[in-house]
């Protein structure tokens, strides 16, 4: 069981810019206060630490396991700015740690507001509140890396994208399902069953996404709210930036449970 009582032994807090993390009787609050977007803001908790000498993180989690989080935000998705979420990832890149970017691996509930456009799953918008997973760390994908620029150009043709991208999406174990952004405004229970041969995502007991494969791990638990936006598309569009926040916003977690299966 991972919960408030174990802080700070198991959780590390990151606060940047206008981001603040507070622990209250009802759980943890990751807030971003109003700012003009000229400086990165982040409110984050993780259960892994960065070892500067080894230039590495300590990731403890692999499947099979079950993550259960009871959470809400202070507004529906349409009123939030930046990114937020909770789940597991391998911290491939982030403004809060200076190191070379790594290929991403993640399995989580993830929110991104426009102008973000991370359109990695065919037929799913590149922003919104999602159940999502990706594993770009597999060895067979490294062999295809030199072809990435040519593939990006080819994917700008709708016909070639529809024909050639689905096998790559499966190889990267990308799975996504767009959720109702209104869910964020109220308390709900989110579950990820992360197994060796697939994953199940549920909200209040109702399954919203099931995949036939899943990231292999290891990965670390993370929950956050920040002001980053990103554009990453199969067509080779790549850009990043910061978004201003006019009103206070926060992600709240009442409970977090991680069980090995």
Keywords:
single chain, 261 residues, mainly beta, Jelly Rolls, seven-stranded antiparallel beta sheet, 3 helices, 19 strands
Percent strand: 35-45%
Number of strands: 19
Q: Domain count, please report it.
A: 1
CATH topology name: Jelly Rolls
Helix content class: under 10%
> What overall geometry do the principal axes of the alpha carbons give?
globular
Please trace the helix and strand order, writing H or E for each element.
EEEEEEEEEEEHHHEEEEEEEE
Termini separation comes to: 13 Å
How would you describe this protein?
With about 260 residues, the protein is mainly β. The chain has helices spanning about 140, 150-155, 160-170; strands at about 10-15, 20-25, 25-30, 40-45, 50, 55, 65-75, 85-90, 105-110, 115-120, 130-135, 175-180, 190-195, 200-205, 205-210, 220-225, 230, 240, 250-260. It is globular and about 50 Å long.
SSE arrangement:
Elements: E1 12-16, E2 19-24, E3 27-32, E4 42-46, E5 50-51, E6 56-57, E7 65-73, E8 83-89, E9 105-112, E10 117-118, E11 128-135, H1 139-142, H2 148-154, H3 158-171, E12 175-179, E13 188-195, E14 198-203, E15 206-211, E16 220-226, E17 228-232, E18 238-242, E19 249-260
Parallel strand pairs: 10-17
Antiparallel strand pairs: 1-4, 2-3, 3-19, 4-16, 5-6, 7-13, 7-19, 8-9, 8-16, 9-11, 11-12, 13-14, 14-15, 17-18
